[in-house]
Write a structure and sequence with these properties.
Layout: E1 5-11, H1 17-22, H2 28-38, E2 41-48, E3 52-59, H3 64-78, H4 83-89, E4 91-94, H5 95-106, H6 118-133, H7 138-157, H8 167-179, E5 186-190, H9 194-205, E6 210-215, H10 218-228, E7 231-234, H11 238-241, E8 247-250, H12 261-270, E9 276-280, E10 297-301, H13 306-310, H14 317-369, H15 374-402, H16 409-419, H17 442-456
Parallel strand pairs: 5-6, 5-8, 6-7, 8-9, 9-10
Antiparallel strand pairs: 1-3, 1-4, 2-3
Helix pairs in contact: 2-3, 2-6, 5-7, 5-14, 6-7, 7-14, 8-9, 14-15, 14-16
């Protein structure tokens, strides 16, 4: 099994919010199925959040470039965007670089807010969906499980998350810069997901008096309202209540804007132009960018949060260095597992061939000695198979050790397959005429072995 790991993605470092919005995948399950059907890949998984889209796959009988091109073309066509825009804003990794990148993402070392815990949950959700759809198999299964354990190790062994902040916390910090003290203000959360829950927690901790939670699923809004002490409403009733609030934080999964500038203009009249503060932490964006053109409104999208985020980064650099050392070590460990996959078919072929020879020789012997009862036959089979496997023990250990060395796997696997003729190659009669003076029939080999033993004696 020698399948190349390929990763292609874009994030807040490589693409602005317009591009991320354009190429966001709102239905990853459908996308994964289509990717598997239209591209030369064996398995795949997609992660799509407000700050990144990552597509990881393993190649199936195709070159690295062919796989990358097919993924980009399918991604662009699905999002009705241009291939050129996608190529310009994406990064591409293969094999161990792809492995290291996924570990880095899982550990929140590549997040806008280093150390935030949300990305690990999002990665787990994305993996669960891929498993349910059947697009995650041997390599992606192992890679994602390993990434979860690497993230756990980083959080245990470093203080990367000790003062971690989330996008939601950064949003609240920005609100404080606009309003100063938040005591007595009222807020509305549009969307009742994890981001909204975190935002609600931070708002309450900073003195917000009341919270209205608007969500498409009223039961989820009620659930969040119970735990936070807020008021749940159906998202369809949101426009009727907007005039009551000072702060609006939106984080739905809607593919279109849920707050239009026209509606906000009416709300401002009801509020007698009292200022309103909007933070849009959704991708695609929930709030019409034209809202920012209205008087007494302050609209910030997810890219605007970078300034708040950067203020909290300096103290994490030392811990990040420790975390990256863990990622590097775990990547090397994963490499050993990948190498073991390369050698696996050769081990199976070697054992199968030896067992076949052992059983064939046993059959010849049984013909000579005559009939034996079933119990004796079974015992003899166990004996010859056991001897066969024990004879392979040292060669297999040698192979496993050597394939873990840098750049050695392919050479030693090829050597073993040729030495034991596992691919049943036929040597042409005129091959190696300058070296081959005798035949290699079984009886010739027997004579060679006997002669060698006699020389030693």
């Amino acid at each position: 099994m020698n399948r190349k790991i390929i990763l292609i993605g874009l994030n807040h470092k490589t693409a602005n919010v317009n591009i991320r919005e354009k190429f966001a995948l709102t239905d990853t399950e459908h996308f994964e199925k289509g990717l598997a059907a239209h591209c030369p890949i064996h398995e795949c998984m997609c992660l799509s959040t407000c700050n990144r889209v990552e597509i990881i796959a393993t190649a199936k009988h195709a070159s690295e470039q062919d796989v990358l091109n097919s993924i980009i073309e399918y991604w662009a066509s699905t999002c009705h965007g241009s291939v050129a825009d996608l190529v310009e804003n994406t990064y591409q990794y293969t094999d161990l670089e792809a492995v290291e990148h996924i570990f880095t993402v899982a550990c929140s070392l590549d997040s806008m807010v280093m150390g935030e815990p949300q990305i690990l949950g999002q990665l787990k959700d994305a993996y669960r969906k891929a498993v349910d759809e059947g697009t995650a198999r041997t390599i992606i299964n192992r890679l994602l499980h390993k990434s979860f354990s690497v993230a756990k190790r980083v959080r245990t062994e470093t203080a990367i998350a000790s003062s971690a902040v989330s996008i939601s916390f950064a949003a609240v910090e920005l609100a404080k810069k606009i309003f100063g003290n938040l005591s007595g203000t009222r807020a509305m959360l549009i969307g009742a997901g994890e981001m909204a829950e975190l935002a609600a927690t931070h708002l309450l901790q900073n003195g917000v008096q009341d919270i209205i939670i608007a969500n498409r699923t009223l039961s989820r809004a009620k659930e969040l309202a119970r735990s936070m002490g807020g008021e749940p409403i159906q998202i369809e009733n949101m426009a009727d209540r907007l005039h009551e609030v000072d702060i609006v934080i939106s984080s739905t999964g809607s593919p279109v804007a849920v707050v239009q500038a026209k509606a906000v203009k009416k709300v401002l009249r009801k509020r007698k132009n009292k200022p309103m503060f909007f933070i849009d932490i959704a991708v695609p964006r929930d709030i019409d960018p034209d809202v920012n053109q209205l008087d007494n409104t302050y609209l910030y999208d997810i890219d605007d949060l970078k300034e708040v985020v950067e203020d909290n980064m300096a103290q994490r650099h030392e811990e990040a260095a420790k975390a990256r050392a863990v990622v590097t070590a775990e990547t090397a460990t994963f490499k050993n597992w990948l190498n073991s996959l390369e050698i696996q078919p050769t081990i199976v072929d070697l054992v199968d061939k030896n067992e076949e020879i052992a059983l064939r020789e046993l059959a010849k012997t049984l013909k000579k000695i005559g009939p034996v009862d079933q119990k004796t036959r079974n015992s003899l089979e166990t004996l010859v198979l056991s001897v066969s496997r024990k004879c392979l023990h040292e060669p297999l250990c040698f192979l496993k050790r050597r394939t873990q060395e840098e750049g050695s796997a392919e050479r030693f696997i090829d050597l073993a397959r040729r030495m034991f003729n596992l691919d049943e190659e036929v040597v042409p009669p005129d091959a190696h005429l300058d070296r081959k003076n005798t035949t290699c029939a079984p009886e010739d080999i027997d004579r060679f072995i006997d002669a060698s033993k006699n020389k030693e004696q």
